[in-house]
Write a structure and sequence with these properties.
The structure is a homodimer of 207-residue chains. Chain A is built from nine helices and two strands; from the N terminus they run αααααααβααβ. Chain A has helices at residues 6-24, 31-38, 44-48, 52-74, 81-98, 100-115, 120-145, 153-174, 177-193; strands at 147-149, 195-197. Chain A binds a DNA duplex (18 and 18 nucleotides) through helix 3.
Chain lengths: 207, 207
DNA sequence: GTCTATAAGGAGATAGAC
DNA sequence: GTCTATCTCCTTATAGAC
C-alpha cells in the first residue's frame, strides 16, 4: 500500500462507511467491515478516527450537505404553477426513490444522531435546512406565477418539508410509487387552493 | 424464581425489550440487557426465543397494534369541522409528543423491519393501517359535517397519514412544538379548502 | 418442561513496530 | 508520522443440568 495522509484516509473511510451502511444497515456495520470496504488493514481505523462514533458524527454532517444539494438541483421551474407544483414534488421524491439505500442510510443516521446528546443538534439543523429549502422553493414558485400564499409561510414551508419527508418514509415502507405520487398530487392541488392573486395592494402576508 | 410458562416469559421479555430499546436505543439493546430488565437469568432468552431477531419481529408486530389503537382512541369528534380538523391532528401528534421514547422505538423498529427481507411486509402493513385509519377518520368527519372531499380519498388518506407521520419525525428532530402544530394547522386549513357541500345530486367522487 | 453454566465468535480499541 | 499485530471485553447461542 502506498503511504497516504490521514486526511485522505479519513475521506476514504467515510465513503466506505456510507457504502457499507447503505448496503447492510447501520447495525451490521462494524469497523472491520468499513476498513475491509476501504481496502485497509483493520487497525487503520483507530489511527484515523478516535472512535467509531467520531466517524459516524462526521458522516452525518457530510450526508446532510449532500441531501440538501441534491434537493436543490432537482428544483427546476420552467413551467406554470399547477404543473410545476406537481412536477416539482414528484421530482424531489423521485430522487429519493432512485437511491433507496441512501434514504435508509439517512434515516438511520438521523435516529443515531437523535440518540446521542452531543449529536442531537445535527438532526435539528438537518430539518431546519429542509424547511428553509422548501420555503425558498415555495417563495420562488409563487413569485414566478405572480401569486401569494394565503397561509403562514413558515408553517407552509415546514408542512411541505414534512410532506416530502413523510412521503419518502411511507414509500420506503410500502414501495408503492403510484400511491405516493397520488398523495403528492393531492398536496399540490391543496397548495393551489391556498394561493391568491398578487394584486398591487397587498404584499405577501407574514402570518 | 417461581416456575413460569414459556408464554408468560415471552410476554415479560417483549415488554422488557420495549422498555430497554425506548431507553437506550436498538443498537445498545443486547439480549443480556433484556433479560436483566426482565429480572431473568441470561440463558433464559434463548429458551423463550429462537434468536434475537425472532423477538424483534414479534415486538414490531405487537407495537403496530398499540400504535393504531392509540391513534384511534385519540380521534374524537364532538366538534365542528374546522376545529375538529385542527384539534384532531393536534391530539394525534400530542400523543406522540407525550411519549418520545415510544416514537423513536417505533421508527427504529420500522427501519429494522425494512432491512430484513422477511420482515419488510410488516412495515408495509403498518403504513397501510395508518392510511386506512386516516381514511376512516376523514370519511367520518366529512359525514358528520355534511361535506365531501373534492380530491381522491385514497390519496387524501395517504397524505394525511404522511403529514402526521412526517410531523412526528420532524418534531423528534427539533422538538419545536409550536412550529409542528402551526404546520398541522396549515394542513387543516388546506383540508377545509377542498371540501364541498354534500348536495343531493353528486355523491362522493372516487378519483 | 424449565432453566443455567459455559462456549465460540466478533466487537472496538491499543501498544508498539516501522 | 504511518501503520499493524494483538488484547480484552461483550455478544449471541448451545449443550446439558434439574
Amino acid at each position: 500500500m502506498t503511504r497516504l495522509s490521514v486526511t485522505e484516509r479519513r475521506i476514504l473511510l467515510l465513503e466506505a462507511a456510507a457504502r457499507v451502511i447503505a448496503r447492510k444497515g447501520l447495525a451490521e456495520t462494524s469497523t472491520r467491515a468499513i476498513t475491509d470496504e476501504a481496502g485497509m488493514p483493520r487497525g487503520m481505523f483507530h489511527y484515523c478516527f478516535k472512535s467509531k462514533d467520531e466517524l459516524l458524527e462526521q458522516l452525518i454532517q457530510h450526508h446532510v450537505t449532500d441531501m440538501v444539494e441534491a434537493a436543490c438541483a432537482a428544483w427546476d421551474g420552467e413551467r406554470d404553477l399547477a404543473e410545476n407544483l406537481r412536477l416539482g414534488l414528484r421530482v424531489i421524491l423521485g430522487i429519493g426513490m432512485g437511491d433507496t439505500a441512501v434514504q435508509m442510510l439517512s434515516y438511520e443516521l438521523l435516529l443515531h444522531a437523535l440518540r446521542g446528546t452531543e449529536t442531537a443538534f445535527i438532526a435539528r439543523n438537518q430539518y431546519a435546512d429542509y424547511a428553509r429549502q422548501a420555503g425558498e422553493y415555495l417563495q420562488w414558485i409563487a413569485d414566478k406565477a405572480g401569486v401569494r400564499w394565503t397561509v403562514s409561510q413558515p408553517a407552509l414551508s415546514r408542512l411541505t418539508s414534512v410532506v416530502i419527508d413523510g412521503s419518502m418514509l411511507n414509500w420506503l415502507a410500502d414501495r408503492d410509487s403510484e400511491k405516493a405520487l397520488a398523495a403528492l398530487d393531492a398536496f399540490a392541488t391543496m397548495l393551489l387552493s391556498i394561493t391568491a392573486p398578487l394584486d398591487g395592494g397587498a404584499d405577501q402576508q407574514q402570518n
